[in-house]
Specification:
By secondary structure, the chain is mostly helical. Helix content is 62%, strand content 0%. The chain is built from six helices and no strands. Helix 1 runs antiparallel to helix 5. 25% of the residues are buried.
Length: 184
């Protein structure tokens, strides 16, 4: 075995890699929103499974629309949860995770609300269909809570300089930089 020359030892350092694959909280997902996203995945899955148990339908279009939305919500929310709670989001090549998270969560929450309303208004009235609708509305509430929490903690992700809630932005940032250097 060859050892490195002592000349290189003081300047050469090994890259430290984190052994934690799963990281909560992160810049993109705090602990509260992590558990809300877990609830979204579970409620979407339950709505999807209950919808799949429906044996016959009087009008199948609302059922199929609800099936599509609940399955999509389950799969993509699970994917988003895995990406945001692990280091995988750094390897995907997307720099605007807050905007992706905000748009997806708001969009799927809206679609879940519409599909649950449509399915609730036009179904066979069986207990399985009613339970699927109930879990659809619960999932919609979870998505709404997620969006509200996102807005309270981060604000809108589309602003160029998005200050944290309660943070005061200087009126003239150039003057603030000069003052911080000791010159006024």
């Amino acid at each position: 075995m060859a050892t490195t020359d002592p000349v290189y030892n003081p300047t050469t350092t090994q890259e430290t890699t984190s052994k934690n694959f799963f990281k909560i909280p992160t810049d993109n997902l705090d602990v509260f929103r992590f558990f809300i996203k877990v609830a979204e995945v579970i409620l979407s899955f339950l709505a999807f499974v209950l919808e799949e148990v429906v044996i016959s339908c009087v009008s199948c279009s609302p059922l199929y629309f609800f099936e599509f939305v609940s399955c999509t919500a389950f799969l993509f929310t699970a994917l988003l949860l895995i990406l945001l709670s692990t280091v995988l989001h750094q390897k995907v090549g997307i720099d605007c995770w807050p905007a992706v998270d905000f748009c997806y969560t708001g969009g799927i929450g809206l679609f879940f609300l519409i599909s649950a309303i449509v399915f609730a208004s036009d179904n066979g009235g069986t207990s399985v269909e009613k339970a699927a609708v109930a879990f659809g509305f619960l999932a919609t509430i979870a998505f709404a809570v997620d969006i509200c929490r996102f807005l309270m903690t981060k604000g809108l992700p589309f602003k160029k300089s998005n200050p944290a809630p309660g943070e005061v932005q200087p009126e003239h940032p150039e003057e603030e930089k000069l003052r911080s250097n000791g010159t006024e």
